[in-house]
Structures are given as structure tokens and as C-alpha cells.
Please model this.
Amino acid sequence: MPETIHRFTHGGIEGAILRILDDEPHSLNELLPDEYKLPEDRTLPLAYTCCYVRHRGRHVMVDGGIDGDEVTAQLDGLDVKPEDVDLVLITHADRDHVAGLILQIGDGERGGDVLRRDQRSVAGAADGHLDRLAAGASWETAIRDAREAGALEGDGAWDLDGWDAAAKLAILAMTVLGVDADLRQIPRRGIRDVDLSWLREVCEEHRVRLLATALRTKGGDYELAVAPTPLPPDHLLGQLGSKEMGIVYHTDLFSSISSVIEEASPLPSAASMLRDILDIYCG
Model:
């Protein structure tokens, strides 16, 4: 049986190539999804390798191999635990490069469910309102400015009381997290009762955003909530303007994943509403 761990060093980098299988022929159809299986199976001598690198105290994996138990055992031979891995680089998403990774790297108790925490700022009108209040505007002036800018409609309750953020959070929880979310049960605190003295003091070093969050608990459930939340000035969601919305996923495999959209006009919302109406009408 050939060696399974091939160590290397280069400058300040050290690491190892991990051999997951031997060089004996293996069925190609075992690697392929059903729709791509060959009419006549072929066997190839494949070793399925992935790479571990340590540099400046950080642990990095390049691909995850095909056999998670074998990857974990070989990392153990390097005195590395799967949860120590800081970064995973995927060269491409074929099974022999990711199958061993999905269930092993990160907290093994989570299995393939890798989303630990979701943060999103989806209440542009409320966030713009908070910025105006923090800058010294009165509540009445902030309301007037928001209406003149077209960011606030009607009495503003949907935005200012956090209903809009909670509704978007419920949609996310049901479609992405698989949570049976009830909008009425989501703890929700809008911005009407924000203490202005607290807000202005906090905003000397932070940005306050009406944040919708989904936090994964040890039991595997998600705690959903909406509330004004101080963020560091360099936080992505803290940098959003009143016409922008953003979301940050904190995962155990891929660190943080962020996305921002700019909605400078009502067109995106109108298009979404039209799509929903057509979906309902067409069944």
C-alpha cells in the first residue's frame, strides 16, 4: 500500500498531499450521477487526492477528496482536526473533489447543513431613517425626508415597525433554511421606540441597522429575530445606503458569503409582484 500522506515545504508554507485511495482500478460509474452513467462501465486507476496547506497559522484545504472518513483520518495524522480548517478552496465541484468535504470539514454534527448564521439588512427605509436620526434630525423631519425621497409610503408602519424585515426573513427561513416560519411569531422590534440618545452615542463609532437574523442553535433549529443592531463601520451591512439591501451568510464550510443589491427604483419590487401575480393566476 503506497504512502497516504506526502508532506512538502516551500518557503514559509508547509502542507501535505493526501492520497485517499490506492492506485487500483475503480469503477467510473461509481463517481457519476445517474444521468451521466456510462452504458458500459469503465475502470480507471485513480488515487483521489486533496491538499492540506498551513501558512501563517491558518489551515487551508484544497478540495476535500471523495472519502470523508479517510480525509479526517489523514488530517489527524497531521495533528489537524476538521474544525481547525479556516478556508476551503474548491477547484471544481466533481464528486471526487467535494464528496469527502461536505460531510466532514467543519462541525461534523451539522452534516451537510452548513449555514450557522444569517444576517440581512433588508429594511432600506428604516436604515435610512436611523441614519437621519443619528445625524441629529427629529423624528418628524426624518419621516418627511424619507417620504420626499420616495423611501417611505403611507404611515410607514410596514417599514418602521419591522414588518417588512420580518416578512423577508420568514421567506428566507422557509425557502433556504427549510424552517416552517410563522411571521406572527418572529420576535420583532422596530425603530419607533429607539432611544435617540442611545442611537447618537452608539453611532459615534458604529452604524445601527434594522437587522433580521437567523441563528442556528445547538439543537439544529433557527432563532429568528428583527431588531435595531449596532454594527462596526467596516461591516458590509453597516455600509449599505438607503437604496441598498444586503445579506451575509456565516457558514461552517465557506466562512462568510455576502450579497448586496441596489434598488434605486420601484422596478425590481414591481417585477417581483408581477411574477407572483402571474404564478398565482397560472397556477
Remarks:
- Helices lie at 68-77, 95-102, 124-134, 139-148, 157-160, 163-175, 196-202, 267-282.
- The radius of gyration is 25 Å.
- DSSP finds eight helices and twelve strands in the chain.
- Confidence is low (pLDDT under 50) at residues 102-115.
